[in-house]
Write a structure and sequence with these properties.
- With 128 residues, the chain is mainly α.
- Helices cover 48% and strands 9% of the residues.
- The protein has 3 helices and 2 strands, in the order ββααα.
- It has a two-stranded antiparallel ribbon with strand order 1-2.
- A hairpin with a 5-residue loop joins strand 1 and strand 2.
- The longest helix has 29 residues.
- The radius of gyration is 21 Å and the shape is elongated.
Length: 128
């Protein structure tokens, strides 16, 4: 399914609002999306289970990394391997966060947080 950024579906939602970013890549290394409004479908449940495993593995890897980094005798090749594993885990967790963020309801107000207010940073930087 090809989705145009401003395309609306029959239910009035933007097309991208119904797409779920799946926690795996397609055969060409491109993101995969699921177009369904059934969160209980077989593919939705498989995606949920895969996300849960990815998050659990990332948590376990953090604990493992803390131990390796605390040991001053950890060889450089082991640290390199750890870095590669942490990078993949971070990529997985980021994909889960993006997928879940895409499925959050759109807030009633869609203004930028500081559109009509002075941002805390600019207030702190102003003289006075």
């Amino acid at each position: 399914m090809t989705v145009k950024p401003n395309e609306k579906l029959s239910d009035g939602l933007p097309a991208f609002a119904r797409l779920r970013l799946l926690p795996w890549l397609g055969p060409e290394g491109k993101p995969c999306y699921l177009d369904t409004d059934d969160n209980g479908s077989m593919l939705s449940r498989l995606a949920d289970a895969t996300e849960a495993v990815q998050l659990q593995e990332a948590e376990a890897l953090i604990t493992y990394a803390e131990g390796m980094l605390a040991d001053e005798h950890t060889p450089p090749h082991a640290l390199h391997s750890l870095g590669c594993r942490l990078t993949q885990a971070l990529r997985d967790v980021s994909r889960v966060a993006v997928s879940r963020g895409m499925r959050l309801p759109v807030p009633a107000h869609s203004e930028e947080p500081y559109e009509h207010e002075e941002s805390p940073r600019s207030a702190a930087e102003s003289p006075g």
